[in-house]
């Protein structure tokens, strides 16, 4: 016997009695048909999206720079004119103006940095350092002036060279101690608390080993210097940390040596970029770690552009060169991870500008990387 299926309502799915049709229910009594739940995504899709959740849990903190070459050019023109009028004395006050401008244009988390040094501090530091340097020079020239003989002259020169090799790390530490103590962010000062004797050992030992190994020890030496500086720097009461190893750069350094002639020295930009990335990626503040995205190509283009501006403007574009360099390095630097700013308290340290004056007289470069 064939059974005929009763028709059903397409809206609610109920059986319709064809013989006795019922009136439609009022709108209030209609039931909403829920869509069936979607099946869960495949495991492969979940695995691809998991790292994004991890990345989102580690916020990044970026620096930004707002300076302009035109404004800095105006500052340096005034500095140059006043330096000429004061026979060079205004140099120290002009240097402070440039530092104040550059730091005031550097922003982090909505607030800008500040520089608190003065031209008077730099001038007095220069005079004190000049007295030390003059004493060393007099000691070197005294045997010749007194006619004490060639042997004593040679001994005095060797001793003078040794004193200068000791004063270079002293000047570097003094400069770092002074400069960081004059920089603040949100009213909290930076500081440098490294011991001079520790850096003297690093500097003299690294210089000797670099000489003995014909420069092969350089990446280890540079890493130890940077590690000393980073590990002894503070922001308020919070200490920076460095956990990098120079051995990690040794292979790239040897490759740079081999490619110096074939690339006409251009490969050194790639090595310098890798060394900068290594240094920053192993530098941390509390639970946040720095990250640098500098590339060899970007580094090369920066220097080629700066060289072009310097040559074709006869040096007048130096303010723009400085602004380009600062903006390049800041744009490629980021602080990753949680940073508890509320835990940072003021812990300022006293510092003298004598070390910076000595560094200026010895023409010491503070680029430790």
Structure description:
- It is a single chain.
- With 369 residues, this protein is an alpha+beta fold.
- It contains 12 helices and 10 strands.
What would the keywords be for this entry?
single chain, 369 residues, alpha+beta, 10 strands, disordered N terminus
Biggest sheet strand line-up: 1-2-3-4-5-6-7-8-9-10
Classification by helices and strands: alpha+beta
Largest sheet: 10 strands, antiparallel, barrel
On the 0-100 scale, what is the average pLDDT? 83
**If you compute it from the alpha carbons, what radius of gyration comes out, rounded to the nearest whole angstrom?**
33 Å
Strand content: 5-15%
pLDDT < 50 stretches:
1-57
> Which sequence of SSEs, written as H and E, runs from N to C?
HEHHEEHHEEHHEEHHEEHHEH
User: What's the shape?
Assistant: globular
Please give the share of residues in helix: 55-70%
